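re: ur question from earlier - yeah i can do the single chain one, its not a big deal. heres the input i used so u can compare w yours
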Amino acid sequence: MNEAWYRLLSILVFTVGFWEGPAAILHRIIGDDHGTTMRPVNYLDAPWNYVASATVIVAAFALLAVLDKGREKALARGRHASS
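and the output i got, formated as tokens:
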């Protein structure tokens, strides 16, 4: 995988993590949102939507960390191959 794929996957993971995490919580608190196609976590009832949003946030951070480690390894391999 090259740099472009890591960047694309990082952007997608961050966007989904933000939209289903903090954005869904804000939509629920401010707008009394009870779920849409774009925010399915808000279909859940009161305490569970917050738990699901927090889980999505943690999963997004974990995936971003894995992607960053993979990117660092790929860059290191590229440096060693060109030496």
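The chain has a mean pLDDT of 88. not sure if urs matches, ping me
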